[in-house]
Amino acid sequence: MSEQIAVTGANGFVGRAALRALRDASMQAVAVVRTSASADPRAEVVRVRSLDDITPATFAGCESVIHLAARVHVMNDAARDPLAEFRATNADATLKTAEAAREAGATRFVFVSSIKALGDADSGRPLKETDARNPPDPYGISKAEAEVMLQAFGARTGMEIVIARPPLVYGPEVRANFLSLMRAIARGMPLPIGAIDARRSMVYVDNLASALVECATHPRAANQLFHITDGEDPGVAELARRLGHHLQRPARLLPVPVGVLKTLGSLTGKSAQIERLTGSLQVDSSHIRDVLGWRPSFSLDSGLAATAAWYLNATKS
User: Fold this and answer.
1) What is the mean pLDDT, run by run of 10 residues, along the chain of 317 residues?
2) What is the pLDDT of residue 74?
3) What are phi and psi of 30, to 5 degrees?
4) Which string of DSSP letters, residue by residue, matches 197-262?
5) pLDDT tens for residues 239-276?
6) What's the pLDDT at 30?
7) End-to-end alpha carbon distance in the chain
8) Signal sequence: where (predicted)?
9) CATH superfamily of 4-174+202-233+282-299
10) 7 - beta bridge partners?
11) Where are the domains of the chain?
12) How many Å apart are CA 88 and CA 77, to the nearest integer?
C-alpha cells in the first residue's frame, strides 16, 4: 500500500498542483478542504468548516501532512487588526493542525511558509535559509512566527518539521499581481517598467508541488528548511518581455527611471508598492538541491509558456 499524505488547502492554487504531484508519484492523497469548497474527486476528501475544526480524525492513516491552508497576503487588507487575523490562522491554527496530525500518528509535518517570513528584498546577495528572519508585514510576521512555533513543537515532541519557503508562485490559474501583469501586456497597455532590471526569484507551481512531495517523503528532508525556486531570476523588464513573447503581444515597456518611479510613489502614497517593484528579491535555493537532489522539472521559460497559454485560452472562452 502506498504512503498516504494529507494536503490542507487542497482546493487552492498550489493545493491542486500538490494533489497532481502526489498522483504522479503513485501516492495516496487526502484532500482537506472547507465544507463548501470543490475538491478533486480522485482524492479522498475530508471536509472541515475551518482550521479550528481539524481533529486527529482528519488525518487518520496519514504518514505526512502538507499544510497549505492559510490566510493569504492581500494588498489593502481591510481587516481591523490584520496581524491578529494572520496570527490566528497562519500561526495559532497551524500549530493546532500539527498537534492534531501528530496525535493521529503522522510523523512529518510540511509547513508551506513564504519568503516573506525572511523579508521582501535581498541585501545584494540571494537570501539563504540561514539568514535572520526580518518579515516586512503582518502576513510575513505570521509565517515567521509559525516557523518558530513549529520548530519548537518538533524539538519538543520529535515530530519531523519541514519548512518550505517559496517566493512568487506562478502558473495556470494564477491570480493577483501576476495575472494583472499578463492582462496589461495582452491588452497592449504601456507599462513604466522598461528601466527596472531588479531580479526576482520565482517558482512555477508544478515545480513547487514536486518539491513539496520530496519534503513530505524524502528521509533527508526531516527537520530541514528549504527555499524553493525555478533557479532562474529574471529582471522585471525581462520578465514582462518574455511574457509578451508567449502572449503573442510584445510588451510595451516605457523606460521610466527608477528614481522617477520612486518619487511618484511617494507623491501618491504608493512607496511600498514601488519599492517592491524596483527592489531585488533573489533567493538561494541550492540547499534543497544539495540535500535532496531535487531539480525543477520545468524551466522558467516553459513555465511562462504554460501560464500564458492558459491565459490566452481562458480569455477566448
Assistant:
1) 87 96 95 86 89 96 97 71 95 98 98 97 95 96 98 98 98 95 97 95 98 98 98 97 97 95 87 85 98 98 98 90
2) 64
3) -115, 115
4) --BB-EEEHHHHHHHHHHHHH-GGGTT-EEE---S---BHHHHHHHHHHHHTS---B----HHHHH
5) 999 999 999 999 999 999 999 998 988 888 888 778 88
6) 96
7) 42
8) none
9) NAD(P)-binding Rossmann-like Domain (3.40.50.720)
10) 31, 66
11) 4-174+202-233+282-299
12) 15
**C-alpha cell belonging to residue 292:** 535532496
Question: How far apart, in Å, are the Cα atoms of 252 and each of 196, 206, 236, 274, 317?
Answer: 14, 29, 13, 19, 25
Residue tagged 527611471 (cell numbers): 257
Q: What pairs with residue 64 in β-bridges?
A: 5, 108
**Which position has the grid cell 481562458?**
314
Question: Would you tell me how many other CB atoms lie within 10 Å of the CB of residue 232?
Answer: 13
pLDDT at 260: 93
Pull the grid cell for residue 313: 485560452
Element (H, E) at 89: none
- The amino acid that residue 107 corresponds to is T
Cite the active site residues: 139
